[in-house]
Every structure is written in C-alpha cells, then in structure tokens.
C-alpha cells in the first residue's frame, strides 16, 4: 500500500480505547469474504485489504467510529462474518473494516418476532428462540457462521424461501436501526417500505446495528434426499412438490448428477454416480404426506433422517449444507477449478427454461436449482456448477442465459448493480445522498454513486478506481 | 312418516344403554344443517328427518351403533354440529342420526400436531393448543360451533386457506381413524393418499372417529378492514396482497358494496354505503408491512383492531365472522330472500373473470371473494350474494359462470357430485364398496352409488328415491 490515508492516524487516536486491529495479516484476513468462489473476483479482489479493523461492542462505539471516520475522510466497510460471495464486505478503498461480530446481543423475543443486534449469529438467534418454539423464517446455508446483519445487508434469501420468499419481500424484516455516516450520525428506525433503502445495499448507505425479524414455528426439520435417474425428473418432482400448499417444507433443492455423488462425500453411500437428487427439509408431521407424494410420483427416498439410525446420522452434515452455495463450496473442495452462477428461471415457464439450458450446456453446467416463492409464485433459482474454462466463456454462458429470458444475478461482479438488476436503485442512491454525503461507506460497490453514466450494456465490468 | 323401518326397534333395544333421543321435534332439529341457505334445498329437504338420534361417548359405542344398524339394515347419517350448507348431514332415508358431539376428547398435542376425537369443537381444539403457542391451520367461519370431524367430512377449507390451501391438499390432515359399516366394523388408520377416500365424503363410506391435524403457530391475529370505492379496486388489492409471501395473513376476503354497510350491522359505523371492503386477519408483527403495502396501494384502512379502543372492539364480531359463509348468514338475517353461490375463479385469469362476472350480473350478484392458495397458486373463490328470483334464473346464473370458465360448486345440490366436480370420485366409490357394502351410510349423497348412469349434463338435479 503506497497511498496511506492521512486520516488513519487521527482515527486510530480517536478510537484508541476501542478494540482495534492493525496487524496486516489479520486485517487482510478480516477484509475478505467468499469472493474467491469466482475466478473473476479472485483476480480482481485478492489483494484488497483494509487498514484497520475496528470491532465495536455497542452502538455508541459504532457511532464513534463513524463520526471519527467522517471527520477524517476514512472509508468504512461494514462486515458481519464475511460469508458473502459477491465481495460485499471487501474494502475496495481500504480504510476501516467495521467488524460487527461483537455487536451481537439478542435483546427481545416475542410471539413471531425477535430483536437483536446486527452481529448476532443466525444460529445463535435460533438457539435463543427455539426453547420458545420459534425460529427465523430464512437463513443462508452459512447458518452456523453468518450474522443476521450480514444476511440482510448482503443476502437475498435461502433456506426458508420456499415458504416465505426473499428478504426483500415486505414482512420478512420487520424493522432495522440504521446509523448514518455524517458529522453527527443519526439513528434511524426504519420499517415498512423504507427498509428497501438499506436491505441488500451492502452497507453502502448506512450501518445496520439492530434488526427486528419475524419468527415462525420451529420444528425438528427432517432431512430427506430423493434420487432420480435424470436431472429433469428431479426438477419436475421438486416443481410439483413446491406447489403442495399443505406439505410444510423449509428447503427444496435439486442437484444434477454427477455433483451429489462426486461432491457430497459423506452422503456418497446413499447415491449412485448417475443419480440426480432432490434435497428437502420437511416438517416431521408432514412426513406421511411427503412419503405419499413421493410414492405417487415414483420418487425414491434414498435418505430420510426420521428413519435413519443415530449412528448413521452422526457423520452427516445437515442437508441445508448441501444446498444453496454450500453445493458450490463442496464442489470447490473437490475441484478448485469450478465456479457457479445465480440465475432466475421466471414463473410460469421455469421447467421449460431449465430444460432448455440443461440441453444447451450439458455437463459444462451441471444443474442446481433452489425452489422459492418469488412474487407469490413458486419458481426456482439456478445455481449451476460451472466447469470454468475462461472469463470469455463465462460471459458467453451468462449472455446465453439472459438471451433465453433467464436473468443472471452475476456472482462474478462486486457491484450492487452488476450483481443484481443491472440498473440503478434510485431509492438506495437517494438515501445514500442523505446518509453518506461523503461517499465513505463501502466505496466502489454502488456504480450509480461513482459513475452515473455507466453503460451496463457495454462489454466488461465496472472498474472501481480505488482497486489498487 | 309412514314406512317405519322395521330395524329401528331392534336397534333401539340393542343400544338401550346408550344416549338415544326419539322425541320427534328434537330428532328433526338434530337432522338439520344450514341447507336452508339455499331456497332450492329448502324446498327439497325441509321435511327430512331421522328416526333416532344416538350420541355415542366412545369409539366402542360408535362401533356398537354401526354393528346394530348393519344387522338391522338401518341407515346411519353422521353428524357433527350440523353447520354444513349442502345438506351434508341430512338423513335422506331416515334411520339413525349418529351425533358425534360428545365424542370430543382432545387426546394428544405435540409440536405441529394434535390428535382429537371427531366431535371436538374446532374452537375447543384451539383453546387447548393455544397455551402452547399452536393453533389449527384451517377453520370454517363457524369456528365457534363446528366440529373438526364435520369440517373434514363436509368442508373444504376456509379461514387459513390463503396460507395453507384446502383440506384436500396432502398434509392438511395427517391421519384419520375410520370405522367401517360392516357386520364386524373394522377400524382403519388412514394417512397420506388414502385420506382422499374419506375427506369430503359426507360420511358416506366410513365414520371418522378421530383425526390427527397439523398445527401452526398461533398469533393474536389482527382484524383489519380496508375500504374501497369499487369492488374491483378491493379485489385487485386483495389479489396483490395475497401474492406477498412475507406478509402473514390468515384470512383475505373481499365483499362488494352495498353488502358490508347493509349486512355488517355492527361494523356499519366504519363504512360508507357505497364502500366495498377487503377483510383481513394479519399477524401482529406483520402490521407495519401490511400498513406499508396498503399505503403504497392507496388503500384506506377503515378499521384495524390493533389501534382500536377496547370499548370499540367489544361489540364487534371477529372479521372471520364476516367472511366465507358468515357473509351470507349476515345477509340472510337482514334479507331472507337472498342466497349465494360458490365459484372458483381459476388462476391466472381470476381478476379478468371476476371483472367479467361483475359486469354481467351487477347488483343481482353483489361480489364476495375469498382468496386462497389452490394447487400452489393464489386465486379466489367467489361466494357472491345472489338476489334470488327463481330456480330457473339461479340455474342460468350457474350456467353463465361455467360457460365463462368459472366452475361452480353448487350449494343448491345435496349430492357430493353435483356440489363438487360433477363427476364420480372413483376412489371414494371403490372405498364405499368395501366399507359400506349395504349402502347404509348417509344414503342418497353419492350419486355414483345409487345411479351410476346419471347424466350430469342433463337438466335438473339427482333426485334420491328416499326423499319422502
């Protein structure tokens, strides 16, 4: 690093009684997320690091950090557990990494709701609410390590979305406390439609310190795996199962052969190499209905946790750790050259589109679907494994999907726009003008702020000047 | 009654230690349901009565009744609380009315499930499960009086169907204990796909004595009423709200002006005569999201229980008693000449079809929609008020709906087929052959049993010979 930010020293001094880390190796480690799932981001972001990691323990300490950094023009990038895959928490312009891991109190639990600080682990929230028979509606596959604030600021949905839709849907976050990046930081309580200003904004326009989340009934979800001769058989089974309003599921995913056998090492004994699977989390009392549905559709339940021996279950990860981006993670452990995509197959033609893409790409993109409710309908995202050969081919694969009417949420881009809807979120931009007038929060992630005239249809990604 | 069934006396003798009622006035009262919502059924069924009412207190007593009646060829019509509208519980051939009201024990409550006897009141089940934070998924608007067995054998869905679909959906009933009508009655435990044999079979092929039902999280649901200038504005609001996966609702109905003002007497103060309404039951923690959604859609929340004064709420019925067939009931109390229909507006054209029917019939059929999940999609049933003029016009109204692609579940017919899908349910018929070889259970309700060649396309209803 050659251009040392002159504000760093005064910031360090102002915050000297806080928990501050400046050991470069540790700071670099705390500046990373799971961007390296993407060979493209790996090249672009591998050297990115902050200058200091500050770990506040209270909201007052958060405010002190923001105030000091505002005064001295030091960028601040908020971090939960760093389990994002889009470089969400990577400090492109250096400065302070604001690590919220210790702002993690669970403050209040009521019927259908929990209030907790942003750094609370998602699994810790469930541990606190389960004795009362409640749990969070939604969680990522990184359930055991991710924070609730990181999920809300950087994620969109996951396990539970087959029932509840995504985080962006009204009602899936009740309220959030947001601190602005100003000379005198304001504390805003956001609810209803206002939440869209800060959800999935990567912390570019405010620091979420506390959230109120809806809870739902907690059950001892039964892990189930069904095996199929073809990927499309598995996909059609899941597509029909997702439409069963009475069968309570928390997860419904489909993974094409040979991925399950090749990458799910501890489940391999249940699977043939040529078998595609549907993975499910099923409410215990829904198992008779699920079994009836599977029998009717001639699906072979190769594993069900409710009838498995305790010994047998002991060595197995939960099926949610075979799903969403854990599918990719398990693949990367076996073959570090693969990567993935995130695709939406819009309702009502999702099966036709999945079939067409499966035929087009064959084993270059072994299929992986995650079924969700999306705008009130049941459809699926695709998170196929990509047998990566070059950036050019990856771009072509993306283009072919989009030309076929399957929008790609490109996980090989670190900006909100390119990883999302390829357009400016005017509401988030307008809020950033109010809440972060100096543009110090997570710089380089909102193209609309840095380059309002950026042409999304042009070739090539947005390149943030701060990427050193 | 002239043809006295010679089996009655031996049956009475065999069951003399049971609770038996033969006072004709009481027997007649216990032979009736809410068939009189229909002017057609009123004419046909008004004189229908059983001969004896037997009220067993245990399953063993049920078996004794069935055994005795089988031996002596006495018909048996099972009855819950008699809140059906299709004459489900009316004993067309006389004989024994098997009143299950005292077979009402709640036997077991676990996470997500309750086991109870068929005669348990739905509200009593919820009273027992609510202290543990659980309640039934679905209930009819006759929540306070209906039994769970009656709901399952004679109903199809209701409050809660916007979340869970209908009773016929796999998983919405976990299991049922069914007693057959044979020389030696068998006890069958039915689960999964088998349940379709006895659900909504009006007790024509077995006596359900016990059920296991799924439970869901119980909340203090907030009654909300939104007012609109037109029926279609209200309908489009509800149609969009039903697609909000994150806003937890238990009820979502729409009722056209002038019905709310004219018939909802205790809510009249909140309503203009020309106002159509959307009635909702909303989870308390979803109220900020609901309010945001309403504001965005410019809906006027004329009543919300969470901000109403205690005094104000005291005199008001719950909104579920403005919905489903309680809408009709409130209408009948004000104007006994009205009746109603039950229509399905199939997804995805439900709004277009509702609009077309609204334009076609105007104030002859003030609109009433109930939004539900149906085969995985959100759509609506219509239960319009019908300003009845003649049977012929009623038939014409039904025909016009069916010609427009809106199937009618005709509540002016007492048979399973005519009130349902206008076709034989082969599975229920096959099961009746096994379980009721003499055809003694609720005679006259399954056309396929009595007249396999009945022509559903011909004019006029099926006329059961036993109708005296």
UniProtKB/TrEMBL annotation, chains A, B:
Pfam families for the chain: FAD_binding_4 (PF01565)
Gene Ontology biological process terms from the UniProt entry: lactate catabolic process
Record carries keyword GTP-binding: no
Gene3D superfamilies, alphabetized: 3.30.465.10
Keywords: FAD, Flavoprotein
InterPro entries according to UniProt: FAD-bd_PCMH, FAD-bd_PCMH-like_sf, FAD-bd_PCMH_sub2, FAD-linked_Oxase-like_C, Oxid_FAD_bind_N
Domain FAD-binding PCMH-type: start-end pairs: 46-218
PROSITE patterns recorded: FAD_PCMH
GO MF term list: D-lactate dehydrogenase (cytochrome) activity; D-lactate dehydrogenase (NAD+) activity; FAD binding
Name used for this protein in its record: FAD/FMN-containing dehydrogenase
Organism of derivation: Breoghania corrubedonensis
């Amino acid at each position: 690093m050659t251009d040392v930010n002159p504000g760093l020293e005064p910031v360090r001094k102002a915050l000297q009684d806080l928990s501050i880390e400046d050991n470069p190796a540790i700071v670099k480690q705390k500046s990373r997320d799971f961007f390296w799932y993407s060979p493209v981001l790996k090249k672009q972001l591998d050297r990115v690091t902050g200058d200091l990691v500050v770990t506040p323990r209270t909201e007052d300490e958060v405010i002190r950090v923001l105030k000091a950094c505002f005064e001295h023009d030091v960028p601040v990038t908020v971090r939960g557990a760093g389990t994002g895959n889009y470089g969400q928490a990577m400090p492109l312009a250096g400065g302070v990494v604001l690590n919220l891991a210790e702002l993690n109190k669970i403050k209040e639990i009521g019927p259908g709701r929990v209030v907790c600080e942003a750094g609370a682990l998602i699994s810790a929230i469930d541990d606190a609410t389960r004795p009362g028979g409640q749990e969070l509606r939604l969680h990522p596959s990184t359930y055991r390590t991710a924070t609730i604030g990181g999920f809300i600021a950087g994620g969109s949905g996951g396990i539970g979305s087959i029932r509840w839709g995504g985080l962006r849907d009204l009602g899936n976050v009740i309220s959030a406390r947001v601190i602005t990046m100003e000379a005198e930081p304001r504390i805003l309580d956001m609810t209803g439609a206002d939440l869209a200003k800060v959800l999935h904004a990567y912390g570019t326009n405010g620091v979420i310190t506390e959230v109120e989340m809806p809870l739902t009934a907690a059950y001892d979800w039964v892990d189930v795996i069904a095996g199929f001769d073809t990927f499309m058989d598995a996909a059609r089974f899941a597509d029909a199962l997702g439409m069963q309003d009475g069968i309570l599921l928390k997860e419904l995913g489909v993974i094409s052969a040979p991925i399950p056998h090749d990458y799910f090492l501890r489940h391999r004994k249940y699977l043939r190499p040529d078998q595609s699977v549907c993975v499910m989390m099923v409410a215990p009392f829904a198992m008779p209905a699920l079994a009836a549905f599977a029998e009717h559709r001639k699906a072979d339940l190769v594993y069900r946790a409710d009838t498995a021996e305790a010994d047998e279950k002991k060595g197995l990860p939960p099926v949610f750790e075979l799903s969403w981006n854990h599918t990719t993670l398990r693949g990367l452990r076996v073959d570090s050259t693969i990567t993935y995509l995130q695709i939406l197959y819009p309702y009502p033609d999702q099966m036709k589109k999945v079939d067409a893409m499966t035929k087009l790409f064959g084993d270059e993109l072994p299929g992986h679907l995650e079924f969700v409710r999306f705008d009130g309908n049941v459809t699926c995202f695709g998170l196929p494994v990509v047998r990566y050969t070059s950036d050019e081919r990856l771009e072509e694969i993306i283009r072919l999907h989009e030309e076929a009417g399957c929008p790609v949420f490109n996980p090989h881009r670190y900006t909100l726009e390119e990883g999302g809807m390829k357009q400016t979120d005017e509401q988030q931009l307008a809020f950033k003008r109010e809440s972060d007038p100096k543009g110090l929060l997570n710089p380089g992630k909102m193209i609309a702020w840095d380059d309002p005239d950026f042409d999304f249809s042009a070739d090539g990604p947005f390149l943030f000047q701060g990427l050193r």
